[in-house]
Each structure stands twice: as C-alpha cells, then as structure tokens.
Design a protein that fits this description.
eight-stranded parallel barrel, globular, about 15% strand, about 450 residues, alpha/beta
C-alpha cells in the first residue's frame, strides 16, 4: 500500500542551520518573518510548522554564543499570533517539562487549540543541565536520571487536565466546527513524587480532544516515552538504513503500550538544497555548508567536544593533537550537542581518523560531522528520494529546515511539492480542519494517554 507523505517546516532558531550572512535572511524577532514562513508552509499544504525553544542564551568561554545573540520570542505568543493569520496549518511548539508546571502548560496549549480551531501541538522535551536551570526556581536540583520520570509524570498530569472536563464527547456541527456537548468541569487530583496538585481545570476540552503530542529523543527512555504517549516522534537518523532501523525499533515498541503502528508518526529533521542540475545543487550545497560553518563557528564546535579554549587553533589546519578534557564541560555551557558525546576522547579519535582518511582540515571536518540529513539535487531527485524514504519505512515524512528564513521554504513548496502531488503521495488540499486530521491521527480515547504513562 502506498503511504501518504507527511511534511512540516521548522522555523530555525538559534543554531547554525540559518545562513545569517545571506542578504535574503530575515529577522528572527519580527512577527512578519514568522507570518511569511507559516503562510508559505500553508500554501504548500504542509501539516504543521514547528518552533523550537531556548530557555537561556548559551555561553562559550564565558561569552554569549554568537548564534544565540538574536534570542527567541516566546513560543506561545508567536503561535497564538499565527493562529490569527493562518487557517489550516498546524502550530507546534516546544515547551519544556523540566522547568514548567503541568497546570500552566496544559492551560496554554488548550487555549491555543481553541484559538486555532484544533491546530495545536506540544513538543515535550526535557532539560538536562543546571546551567539552564539557573533561570528557574528549581535551578540545578533535578538529577539527569530523573528527567524522563518527571516528563512522564508531567505529560500524564497534563493529559488528565486536558480531559478533565466531563460531558459528551467532542462533536461537529453542520458547519464543521467542533465543540464539547453539555460540558462541565471536572475535578482533578494528581499526587506523585513530582506533583501534588488538585482543583478544577478552567479550559474546556479542546477541538482535538487534546493537542497533538510530539517528542524528540533517541535513548531507550526517549523511545519508550514516545511509544507510550506521543503522536509524533522527531528523529535525527539521516541515512536510509539508519532510518529504517529506528523506524522498526520504535514502531515495534508500540504493542507493549497497547498501541498500533499508525498511532505514532516518525518524522526526521531534514535540510534541502535545490538546483537545476545535480552538479549545480551539489556546488550550492557546499557553499551553504561553508556559510553555515564559518572559521569561527568551526572553532566553536571544536571547543564543545575538546572542552578547552582553542581560540588560537587554525581552522584550516589539522585537528588538535591534544585530547579533550574529560569531565564537566565548562567551555560550552548549555549546548545540547555536548551531551551527545558520551566518550569525548573516542569521538575525537573518530574525527581524527576521518580527517586523515579524507584529507580534511578542521573546518572541513566540522562541516562533515555537523551536517544534518540533506536532500540535495534537482526537484525531481529530491521528490523521488523523499518518496523512497517514506515508502521504504525509513520515516513517515520530514520536518524541513531551510537555510534561509523566512523565504527559503518557498522553492521547496513551489518545485518539490507539485512533484509529490503528481506521484499521488501528498495532498493537493487539506481534507480536514485539525492537525489530527492532517496527520491521520484519531482522537485518543479519554484518559488513554494518562493511563499508558501511569502504567
């Protein structure tokens, strides 16, 4: 059976995806950038747009990391504003489960789901570092090993709140609108080692029953967390083979939680570079990667692994001959990439072997190891490759991150989407009104997610 492809768009935040130096790059603060980006995605009939979250400006050598200086507006504020200038596109925001509270987050997402007529989604993440926690009342108290336990409790509590209003189920009127028949609030009480709350939730059950839940995590705990209660999981696996292995593993976990394979979508992040010919696209892709990883940025990434000041290192020379400093990372504070290197010395040796075998300078090596899954080629090639990944069960679709914001998504929408539509694997128009409709996800049974997480 031919699968339908799911596509979404990520408005890149404070990272090296965006080519800041390009004259076409717009503001990451002004609302017009977010509006233009969302409307381009909606014109392409994409499932949703996605905003990441940053809870603290990151530091490098006791200075604000250069790609963070731009900052990031509040996620809920931007998504609520976008609900007023779009009609169908889903609105997904990352909100942290480590440094927020279930009642507040549930109330905000339920409100967004009402404001958008059922287009809200929550990407549930955890924070691992005390550096970020210093901005919050509980700064640094939560052990890394406890973060998924808190996240499970947080999500289960939020689901209890979403579904605490009692009455008939969500129904549709003759105009397609959805509402809760004969609603009345219900009491909630949740007590466990993380939360001790009770009362009445003050936002009626929303048009989707509850917002769509996203999760991003590659550890065993993360995969189980997604299999238990998420509707969509983000993946970072970039090759067909790695994608298929991840897909089979996560989908294989679903029966343990009483769920079927179609109840969880897998959508890796992906970049793209288009050209009139394969050679032109490859040349442009190399230019983009070099713009994304300037000499200064290459040293920044190098210091994150080596955990030492390398400001005097030549980015056009070989990798450092000294080994990384093992232990607490005091150079790159709050950088998510740091925790991915569980054995810095082993990673450094892998990088050295790759650089020697391929005759790469430090900067060229960083370009290679920091690159995401990229679709590079003519629109026809890119469309065929995306279709192959989905039909081969390496993913259910992709979350696209253009290197130019906000207009960089337009070439994909204008050139690749029509080819996928011609193949019959992507919609030509929205068939429903909610994000669950776009994703092909049913309304969850009342309390199902909370029961699964609790059990």
């Amino acid at each position: 059976m031919t699968k339908q492809i799911h596509l979404a768009a990520h408005f890149p935040g404070v990272n090296n995806t965006t080519v800041w130096s390009d004259p076409a790059s717009g503001s990451h603060i002004e609302f017009d950038s977010f509006r233009e980006f969302a409307q381009i995605a909606e014109a392409g009939k994409l499932d949703f747009i996605f905003l990441a979250e940053g809870l603290r400006l990151r530091e490098q050598n006791d200075r604000i990391y250069d790609l963070d200086v731009v900052g990031r507006p509040d996620t809920f504020t931007v998504l609520a504003a976008l609900a007023a200038v779009t009609e169908r596109i889903g609105l997904t925001g990352t909100i942290n489960s480590t440094f927020n509270e279930p009642y507040e987050v549930a109330r905000q997402f339920a409100s967004l789901d009402h404001l958008s007529d059922g287009r809200a989604a929550w990407n549930v993440v955890t924070s691992w570092d005390a550096f970020t926690g210093e901005n919050f009342r509980r700064g640094g108290f939560l052990a890394q090993a406890d973060r998924y336990d808190r996240a499970k409790s947080f999500l289960a509590t939020a689901i209890e709140l979403f579904e605490s209003w009692r009455g008939d189920e969500v129904v549709a009127d003759k105009d397609g609108g959805r509402f809760l028949a004969d609603p009345h609030p219900g009491a909630f009480a949740h007590r466990d080692p993380f939360f001790d709350i009770a009362g009445q939730f003050d936002v009626p059950r929303s048009p989707q029953g509850r917002p769509v839940v996203f999760q991003a995590g590659d550890s065993d705990e993360g995969r189980d967390f997604a299999a238990a209660a998420a509707d969509v999981i983000f993946s970072r696996h970039s090759t067909l083979e790695a994608g298929q292995a991840f897909y089979a593993d996560v989908k294989g976990r679903l029966p343990r939680f009483g769920r079927s394979r179609d109840e969880l979508l897998i959508m890796p992040a992906a970049t793209f570079v288009l050209g009139d010919t394969e050679a032109e696209a490859a040349e442009l892709a190399q230019e983009v990667r070099l713009a994304q990883v300037s000499p200064a940025t290459a040293i920044t990434f190098l210091e994150q692994l080596w955990n030492r000041d390398l400001s005097d290192h030549d980015p056009d020379g070989p990798l450092p001959s000294v080994d990384p400093v093992v232990g607490e990372n005091t150079i790159a504070r709050g950088r998510a990439s740091v925790r991915m290197h569980r054995d810095p010395v082993a990673t450094a040796n892998e990088w050295r072997a790759k650089a020697e075998a391929e005759h790469l300078t430090t900067r060229e090596l960083i370009v290679e190891v920091t690159g995401r899954q990229s679709f590079i080629g003519t629109p026809a090639t890119v469309a065929a490759t995306i279709d192959e990944f989905v039909q081969s069960d390496a993913s259910d679709g992709f979350v696209l991150a253009p290197h130019i914001t906000p207009g960089g998504l337009a070439p994909f929408v204008e050139q690749v989407v029509p080819l996928l539509q011609e193949r019959g694997v992507f919609r030509t128009d929205y068939e429903g009104t909610t994000l669950r409709d776009h994703l092909g996800l049913p309304l969850r049974d009342r309390d199902q997610g909370a029961r699964t997480l609790a059990g």
